[in-house]
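User: Second chain of the day. Same drill as before.
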Amino acid sequence: MHPPVGDVFLFFGLFRPVEASGEGWRFIKSAPAFHALWGWLQIGEIHKVDQLAEKELAWARYHPHFHGQADANNTLYIASENLSLDGEDIALPGAGTFKKIHDEYRLTAPEAASPTQWRLPGFFYPSSFDLALSYHSNPARWSRAGEYCHLTSVSRGQEFVLDAAAYPDVSPWLEGLLRQA
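Assistant: Same format as last time:
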């Protein structure tokens, strides 16, 4: 099952502070790596790559999705022109990157020993573990901590899915993040 038009992807990655040296940039050896959000994309169009005619989406043919073996699940998501949350135009682009990593974009808890130890806003704590962030339905991965919750994130995959309909506070949180971009 694929996400529908209108859903929003938040992209995260592994980061580590750097410093200038006489030979260019280098990682600060004493600084730990951490997970942080780096961008977003609201789905505007969905294309099954194997079903496209040869001339369709000519502008996108450089993309790696067009250069692999046939795969029925090979799907290309194209961003919406403008971002819309809960049916309201937010006056932001449908895709973009965060220019700097602020604390709000950081997923790894500040005191964490591992990048997979996340600190999230408290509303992410599942009311039912059937509705938890995908791959995270094990209650042992979650704990509450004041206004936050902690999650030991799985180390697999490149995306997790959250059913925003079950998390009413996610839209205002997301809008706040994106307005800082």
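The chain has a mean pLDDT of 94.

User: Great, on to the next one.
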